[in-house]
């Protein structure tokens, strides 16, 4: 599918629902050297994952921004994450500048369990960070590390959402799974967490956590697609919890690091049994618009 045809196909999905566009809470924009290393990982990850993982939207930054905007994505994120100490503050500085230059990007920040983390997280919050990213698998850290106590406290007090990759997919880590997150929420029950990939593959546990904790959300990143169904399928059936948690399920894509077209992620949602247009409108736009206080466009100026 050509670029223009693909954009038209994506826009048809949300326009048919009467939406002004999509809000995608799980997209990645990073400093080029960091993103290059991420792409190198996926290029070589085939033997580890059991199948190739091609990057479908491998383009320069301007091209990737143009693609999202052509799709009608109204807001997106620049999810950055460190894999070692003394990296997070630098990533945050980059993300601040990116958000200033890219007004449709939610200002994003990150952290790592290290001395000084509370300080730079506080600076990010006071500077207007709208969302944080925590990657438990890649960072290989326990979210309950004492070095993060003040970080989580500040995030809970400010109500700033955190997209947290804490499930054990595509590969388990030492601290992934529902156990560490349950312990974290017992200590900081007010945390606004957005569980990436709906907690893949521990979907069942994380759906329960979402329903138990009013501030916990789930993002749909890659879930329900044919690619993930071959690796870690979601036991869809007619699970009523998908509807029960509907107001706290947010659309995420993992753009640009996805091995299929953007439209496929939307089709996987619209094909789910037991969901209706109201559920889809919430997931694709309205739930995130409420969480991040994103205003609807004026009727005089429709569009993303």
From TrEMBL:
GO CC annotation: cytoplasm
User: Could you tell me the Gene Ontology terms of the biological process aspect for this record?
Assistant: secondary metabolic process
Q: Name one GO molecular function term.
A: hydrolase activity
UniProt KW keywords = Hydrolase
InterPro entries named in the record: ACMSD, Amidohydro-rel, Metal_Hydrolase
What protein name does the entry list?
A: Amidohydrolase
Which organism encodes this protein? Mycolicibacter hiberniae
